[in-house]
Amino acid sequence: MFSEKVITSLNKSSWIRAMFEEGARLSQKYGEENVYDFSIGNPYAEPPLKVVETLKKYILSDEKGMHRYMSNAGFSDVREKIAKSLEKESGVALNANHVIMTVGAAGGLNVVFKSLLNPGEEVLTFAPYFVEYNTYVDNHGGKLVALPTDPATFEPDLAILEKGITPKTKAILINIPNNPTGVIYSEEKLKAMDQLIKRKESEYNTTIFILSDQPYAEIVYDHMKVPSLLAIFDNAIIVNSFSKSLGLAGERIGYIAASSRIKDVDLLCNALALCNRTLGFVNAPALFQKVVGDTLDAKVDIEGYKKRRDFLYEHLTKLGFECVKPQGAFYLFPKALIADDIEFVKRATKYNLLLVPGSGFGCPGYFRMSYCVKFGMIERSIAAFEKLVEEFK
Amino acid sequence: MFSEKVITSLNKSSWIRAMFEEGARLSQKYGEENVYDFSIGNPYAEPPLKVVETLKKYILSDEKGMHRYMSNAGFSDVREKIAKSLEKESGVALNANHVIMTVGAAGGLNVVFKSLLNPGEEVLTFAPYFVEYNTYVDNHGGKLVALPTDPATFEPDLAILEKGITPKTKAILINIPNNPTGVIYSEEKLKAMDQLIKRKESEYNTTIFILSDQPYAEIVYDHMKVPSLLAIFDNAIIVNSFSKSLGLAGERIGYIAASSRIKDVDLLCNALALCNRTLGFVNAPALFQKVVGDTLDAKVDIEGYKKRRDFLYEHLTKLGFECVKPQGAFYLFPKALIADDIEFVKRATKYNLLLVPGSGFGCPGYFRMSYCVKFGMIERSIAAFEKLVEEFK
Fold first, then answer.
1. Taking the CA of residue B136 as centre, how many other CA atoms within 13 Å lie in the half-sphere pointing to its CB?
2. Helix A4-12 vs helix B265-278: angle between axes, to the nearest 10 degrees?
């Protein structure tokens, strides 16, 4: 009666819903403070003061026409500000025409895939990866191919990448800092990747776009910096959101920026704006376009996230968990204590621990924890982890 | 290098862009007040005072967590309020589970089509119709079939509908008040349609959904009322937005409501929430969900629209234009003075009149005017229409 494909997806994801329901059941039974829910990446952080003040300024200004439609690409003054900020960071000349405001990064990725993909074309990415990428690519007739990474670092393996690139490869999707590992690929690795891609492009006479999904780019620790993919790759398309950097996840505000070095970039940007409309986004929410345009230099409190990372990483590794130390984002991706990560996560619920199996990220044998939660809950969870470890000894 | 399909669409729509560019050129040359731009449905009306005050209340409250993710279906308190408002209007029992908050009606329609359509299934609609319906249905593997209407009333012709329904018909998309005609189908017509559909459903052993795209439902004149499709059709799905009723077009806020009479409605609503996520909308913008939930009884100034409709209808018919008098929305859809509506619209630009050809709505020989513009412009345009009519005498 409904879409068979969608109903199949619903059934497949029913175990995730079952887990959330189990979480809700546990919370009701034991009290919310006694359930350790590390399952969802819903940032606890409030927007920075500057964002709150800017929002007030716009709302109190009673400016006429503030909530009307604008061009499908968004307000040009906001796009110009974002372009100049990226230009400064990357050294690549950009202006408003290269930027399209979007309904978050999820909206932006769908707009990019719709604009780029012909039937059967492939998008490569590196496991573990955000599982929705499969659906986003499939929505527009493409095929996602996830390549394994080096388990010691979760960095791409260029020999595997070389074999993975085919004449059908339309794009390579890079997510740094990575969800779920928190890893930032090194500039050297990315530069070597650029050389490899250029070689394959000339071998196959194709163009391969580098898509950077970078909603966590501002959430980095230890003075790390995310390398500028615009600076490294000619055919770079940046997809970003303010969900994490400004604590605005529910407001759905982000952007796409296409490098001015892309051949026919104007045609591409027209296609992006058209797809923003035809996919039903129409335009990014008006008020928050204005707000983010005025607060590009603002950032949520990173120290709070760092404190959580340090505490959890220290305690979990002390308990014997193997884990690559995250350099950004707000996730840990430790190795499960048995090979079957789904079974492991199920057994963790006995101690009121809600985790997500690595299988959900194309990387079985691991589990993800979101530490964008209250610090007190993290502290209290350690005793539960101790019991969990005890069970597997 | 990019999606061939998208580039083809871009080229096809290039004459529209050319017209807009011509409009901008004319504005620059003659001054904005001397160009009569009736081309875009971007409501001039500001949000009602209650909406503005509610927005201020939320922003000044400094409530924590206001901008975070919520469930993909939206805030349950807001959904419950919408459900109860629709229940009161239709007599059909509804609760929060039947309502999914969306990124406007455009987002809502895409979510509905994704959730319903299997490859090759058909969606019927009535011409003239909002041309984006083609893309929305095509995005999800379906096929839009537009049926002609009675040119004297622009109401559906049930004999044509009967022939149009096939075993592949998954849904019938109804838009009242209609864009571009402003026509509201009568309750009698809709009830007869229901009988016909029931007969065809049992003939083919299928389920046919009635999709009501009703962003103009609150913009009606002369004490007209839009019949409740929830009350008339068992398999009704309402798609609505606050773009026009509350003047919030740029903020992208709307909803889907599925009738509790639909078999397996819970499964359908789970599918809708899933598709809201997987299509990249994730959730409707958080702040404006809260705002519309508190202002469901508010409405933009309808008298202003009525004044425009009356003035334009009176003057254009006096000048000899044939036109069905709109009962709602903010469009006029008169007959062009020659059969070739695209040529007609091109020649109108000579008098600085920007109109949209009926061909863009699957109905050649007519043109659309959006009268959601400043009244002074409408007044000044009459002299230009006089000259245009003179040219075709």
1. 26
2. 80
Q: Is A114 on the interface with B (CB under 8 A)?
A: yes
Q: A67 and B47: CB-CB below 8 Å?
A: yes
Contact A110 B279 (CB under 8 A): yes
In degrees, rounded to 5, the angle at the alpha carbon of residue B6 between the alpha carbons of residues B253 and A74 is 40
Instruction: Give the list of residues 6+ apart from residue A72 with CB closer than 8 angstroms, or none.
Output: A100, A273, A274, A276, A277, A282, A283
Question: Taking the CB of residue A118, how many other CB atoms lie within 10 A of it?
Answer: 16
pLDDT tens for each residue of A312-356: 999 999 999 999 999 999 999 999 999 999 999 999 999 999 999
> Which residues, in sequence order, are CB contacts of A12 under 8 Å at separation 6+?
none
How do strand B236-241 and strand B209-213 relate by DSSP bridges?
parallel
SS3 B241: strand
Q: Which stretch of DSSP H or E encloses residue A229?
A: helix A229-232
Residue ranges of A 305-344 with Cβ closer than 8 A to chain B: none
Put simply, whether A88 touches B (Cβ < 8 Å) is no
| Mean pLDDT calculated for residue range A48-77 | 94
Contacts of B117 in chain A (CB under 8 A): 3
Q: Give CA separation, B241 vs A156, B100, B251, in Å.
A: 44, 12, 10
Model pLDDT, residue A317:
98
Q: What's the rounded Cα separation, in Å, for the pair B194 and A360?
A: 44
Closest partner residue to B285 (CB to CB) among A52, A251, A270 is A251
Percent of chain A with pLDDT over 70: 99
Torsion of CA A93, A96, A100, A103, to 10 degrees: 110
Spell out the domains of chain B, with CATH numbers in brackets: 4-47+300-391 (3.90.1150.10), 64-293 (3.40.640.10)
Q: Where are the alpha helices (DSSP H) in chain B?
A: 4-12, 14-30, 49-61, 76-90, 104-116, 132-139, 158-164, 187-204, 229-232, 265-278, 286-293, 302-318, 341-348, 375-391
pLDDT at B27: 84
- Is the pLDDT assigned to residue B348 strictly greater than 90? yes
Mind listing the pLDDT tens digit for each residue in B220-240? 999 999 999 999 999 999 999
Does residue A330 contact residue A43 with C-beta atoms inside 8 Å? yes
**C-beta separation of A220 from A177 below 8 A:** yes
| Cα–Cα separations (whole angstroms), residue A391 to A26, A371, B303 | 20, 23, 72
Whether A348 and A4 have beta carbons less than 8 Å apart is answered as: no
pLDDT at B17: 66
| Cα(B375)–Cα(A203) distance, integer angstroms | 62
Provide the pLDDT for residue A203: 98
